[in-house]
Design brief:
mainly beta, single chain, 70 residues
Length: 70
């Protein structure tokens, strides 16, 4: 997975929610494009979750797939 691939999902207009699956078997849901940010120099993704009031850092190398919600 690359940051460019993730940006494709983030920038789809109109935005469609998606989830990021990682090597540990967990998934992270992205409901709005403003809740995902990229840190290219260190290949990290930052995800904000307002409901749980949490910030999650995901190493780009740990992402196995992305699934878009229909």
């Amino acid at each position: 997975m690359t940051i460019l691939e993730l940006e494709t999902f983030k920038n789809i207009a109109p935005f469609k929610p998606f989830k990021i699956n990682t090597t540990d078997g967990k998934s992270t849901q992205i409901f709005h494009p403003d809740f995902i940010y990229f840190i290219p120099p260190i290949n990290r993704v930052v995800v904000l979750n307002q409901e749980l009031q949490l910030i999650k850092f995901i190493d780009i190398n740990q992402i196995t797939s992305i699934e878009q919600y229909v």
